[in-house]
Amino acid sequence: MTDKIYGMHHIGITVPDIDEGIAFFQAVFGAIEVFRTGPFDVNQDFMKNKLGASAQSTIRDLVFLRCGEGTSVELFEYDGEEASRPKRPSEVGGMHLCFEVEDVHASEERLRAQGIEMLDGPKLVETGPLAGFNWIYLRAPWGLILEVASFDKLGYEENSPHRLWRAGRLNPDRRTNE
C-alpha cells in the first residue's frame, strides 16, 4: 500500500457571512459554486472531537468553490463563537492565500475598480529565488489577507531541478510542460 500525495485539495476558511464570502470569491476570483450543504446536524462531541471547534458552535452552512484550475476553497459559516478578526500574517497561525493570475497589473486595476481594499503594490521581485514574481496583497471584507501574483519563471529555477506546482502549466520536478 502506498500513500501517494496528489496535492492540495481545498483550503477551508471560516467567514462571518457565507453569502458575502461567496460573492467576494465570485467577484474577485471568478469562483464557481460547486455545492453547498446547509446546516450540519451534529452534536457537541462531533464539533469538538472531529473538527476541533468549540463544542457550543454549530455549522450554519458550508460551500465549496472552484477558483480557476487550482485548489478549491471551502467556506464555513459557524454560529456560537464570539466575533473575531483573522490573524495578521505576522501572528502565529496567520496566513494568506495566493492566486496565480495571468497579469497582476490587470487584476489589480480590476479589483481596485471593484472597490476591493488593496495593499501597496504590485511589487516585482527582482533578485533571489523569487526573482520574476510580481504580486500584490488585498483584503477581504472580513479582514482575510489574500494575494494575486503573476510570473513566467522564478529565479530559483536556474539552480534547482525542482519546480513549484502551477495549475495546468508545469509538472513538478520537470523542466518542460507535459
Total count of domains: 2
Helix content: 10-25%
> Shape, please?
globular
Strand content: 25-35%
Order of SSEs, N→C? EHEHEEEHEEEE
> What structural class should be given to the helix and strand makeup?
alpha+beta
Which architecture of the largest domain does the CATH hierarchy give at level 2? 2-Layer Sandwich
- The CATH topology of the largest domain is Signal recognition particle alu RNA binding heterodimer, srp9/1
Major sheet description:
5 strands, mixed
Gyration radius over CA: 18 Å
Unreliably modeled segments:
174-178
Q: Look at the structure and give the mean pLDDT.
A: 91
Instruction: State the helix count.
Output: 3
Structural summary, described in words:
- The structure is a single chain.
- With 178 residues, the chain is an alpha+beta fold.
- It folds into 2 domains: 1-84, 2,3-Dihydroxybiphenyl 1,2-Dioxygenase, domain 1 (Roll); 85-178, Signal recognition particle alu RNA binding heterodimer, srp9/1 (2-Layer Sandwich).
- 16% of the residues lie in helices and 26% in strands.
- It contains 3 helices and 9 strands, in the order βαβαβββαββββ.
- The chain has helices at 18-29, 44-50, 104-113; strands at 10-14, 32-36, 58-66, 72-79, 97-100, 117-118, 123-124, 134-139, 145-150.
- Strands 5, 6, 7, 8 and 9 form a 5-stranded mixed sheet that branches. A 4-stranded mixed sheet has the order 1-4-3-2, with helices on one face.
- Strand 8 (134-139) and strand 9 form a beta hairpin.
- The longest helix has 12 residues, at 18-29.
- The protein is globular.
- The model is unreliable at 174-178 (pLDDT under 50).
